[in-house]
Amino acid sequence: MALLEVRDLRLSFGGLKVLHDISFSVEKGAINSLIGPNGAGKTSLFNCLTGFYKPKGGSIRLGGRPITGLPPHRITALGLARTFQNIRLFKEMTVLENAMSGQHCRSRHGIVSAILHLPSQRREEENIRTTGMRWLDFVGIQQHAHRLAGGLSYGDQRRLELARALASTPELILLDEPAAGLNEREKLDLVHLIRRVRDETGVTVLLIEHDMGLVMQVSEKIVVFDYGQKIADGTPEAVRADPRVIEAYLGTED
Amino acid sequence: MTEARILPAAAQPRLMRWSVVLPALAAVACALVLPQFANAYVTEVATTALLYVVLCLGLNIVVGYAGLLDLGYAAFFAVGAYTSGILTAEFGLNFWLTIPVAMAAACVAGIIIGAPTLRLRSDYLAIVTLGFGEIVRIIARNLDITGGASGLIGIERPEIFGFKLMQVQHFYYAFLVLALLTAFVCLSVERSRMGRAWFYVRYDEDAAAGIGINRVSAKLQAYMMGAVIASVAGCLYAAKMTAISPESFTFNQSLLILLGVVLGGMGRIPGVVLGAILVALLPEVLRGAGTYRPLVTAVALLAIMLFRPNGLWPDKRV
Ligand SMILES: Nc1ncnc2c1ncn2[C@@H]1O[C@H](COP(=O)(O)OP(=O)(O)OP(=O)(O)O)[C@@H](O)[C@H]1O
Ligand SMILES: [Mg+2]
């Protein structure tokens, strides 16, 4: 059974059909990519998967469990984390506080135990903090832990968003254009980091990316969208050779 | 993940900074000895200031932490005052026992108003809370049990270990204890999982939902905690005044509390305490200005908004 199974997913805004009967799956432990020209509906698909948009029809299953139509926080708790295309950090808070935020759904102490300073609450806080530091270390920005997130370089902000998502201990992580705005060197580091996410933490990765070099290099399977439809789905070699993909890309890019 | 590279010190909570702790201790020490040197008038004004400190700290949870605009906060203050007042005056209940009842009543009121409205965007919320504040006041005006427009009289003075709180000084110390307790509670929660969740929601609701925070529940908890604090302040206020009327809980009162939160710099405790004290002192300081008082107040507020838009003692982050 695949970790993520999307079946006949449909989405529209008013008269505008954004997704037409999308079906695909992601196997556990894979690194897969979702590509397509601007406006193809990639981010909209992520928004459906994570509960930000309510699909018009179809079903989404995570580890066999239906998650269609659940609110975002429930879906995160069930093991699906994401990053955003236009970075959405808590810029006014510290880097560490951002990393700690991911563990909210994995911890339980509330207002009363905080007021009473219960030992179990102190221990949980300590744990949230050290785990946050560990994820900062994983993505390589631990030295910035006590700076404000908004003051980080662009590349480090992307890393922090990844650390925050990983801190929710997901089974599947969705990365929306993680390489956007990075230079060639940073892109190489990112490829390395994405592989480490899968290899060292076992988290399955599905990413949206425009950089074909990066996509071909990192993904085992690629799904291609154009005008809200899936036009291809397969290995990088198969997708690269697919006439419909070539046509879609010739039409929009050079 | 190489454990060895993690510096243990970096993983520790930021240590108490002496630059913050010492001034705070000094302020508390001054507050403790103030009635020994001050006359009854000054002690009375200081007691009012402490009341505003408690109320502003409570509202700060809603406005400063969770980022919700609440224009009817005095309603929860009224719920506490009337609950305690009615239970002591009409039913002869011991003052201290009325506090948990008032807290529970404030919780219920918080849920009734919060649960349906906290899904709304914050500008709608402001209007709904404004309406709620007025409704509570109008209900108090029209019920028999609340004493109608003239209010409740003959509220019992509380006793503690056989000692009856009577004089201005007694209530000054009672409010000081409540203010310190409230500050401790706020500080504890601010630095906890739920406190951080409020800040996440305030800074970016979508990102907060995306990392697994139930935003409606987080907002509701902030709202209820704010309500509970106001209700406890209300209990002690009723006991101090021995008589309360709907006119103590007007929209103006809500605005003054909000002003205290915003004036000092919402979000963090020192700024809010400063704002609360200013709100209580301003009318006294400006007594000499006579009929020009509203003008002077307005100009002072405008100047603050222009030159210190984040408050007099803002949270460094904002
Ligand atoms: N909330 C919304 N309301 C109305 N239309 C929307 C909304 N979100 C997306 N769309 C539309 O859906 C279509 C797909 O947008 P989407 O952002 O999913 O594309 P994308 O593949 O992520 O593109 P890009 O590569 O530029 O990020 C676009 O035509 C967009 O205008
Ligand atoms: Mg997109």
List the helices and strands and how they pair.
The complex is a heterodimer of chains A (254) and B (318).
Chain A: E1 4-13, E2 16-26, E3 31-35, H1 42-49, E4 57-62, E5 65-66, H2 72-77, E6 80-82, H3 95-101, H4 111-115, H5 119-139, H6 154-166, E7 172-176, H7 184-201, E8 204-208, H8 212-218, E9 221-226, E10 229-234, H9 236-241, H10 243-252
Parallel strand pairs in A: 3-8, 3-9, 6-7, 7-8
Antiparallel strand pairs in A: 1-2, 1-4, 4-5, 9-10
Chain B: H1 8-11, H2 18-37, H3 40-65, H4 74-89, H5 95-117, H6 122-142, E1 159-160, E2 163-164, H7 168-190, H8 193-203, H9 205-210, H10 215-241, H11 251-264, H12 269-285, H13 293-307
Antiparallel strand pairs in B: 1-2
Bound molecules: adenosine-5'-triphosphate and magnesium ion.
CATH class of the largest domain in chain A: Alpha Beta
Q: Report the CATH topology name of chain B.
A: ABC transporter involved in vitamin B12 uptake, BtuC
Query: Helicity of chain B, in percent?
Result: over 70%
* Distinct ligands, ions and cofactors found in the model: adenosine-5'-triphosphate, magnesium ion
Largest sheet of chain A: 6 strands, mixed
CATH architecture field of chain B = Orthogonal Bundle
GO molecular function (chain B): branched-chain amino acid transmembrane transporter activity
Keywords (chain B): Cell membrane, Membrane, Transmembrane, Transmembrane helix
Transmembrane segments (chain B): 50-79, 91-115, 171-189, 222-243, 255-282, 294-313
Protein name (chain B): Branched-chain amino acid ABC transporter permease
Give the key terms.
heterodimer, A: 254 residues, alpha/beta, Rossmann fold, 2 domains, six-stranded mixed sheet, four-stranded antiparallel sheet, 10 helices, 40% helix, B: 318 residues, mainly alpha, ABC transporter involved in vitamin B12 uptake, BtuC, two-stranded antiparallel sheet, 13 helices, 2 strands, disordered N terminus, binds adenosine-5'-triphosphate, binds magnesium ion
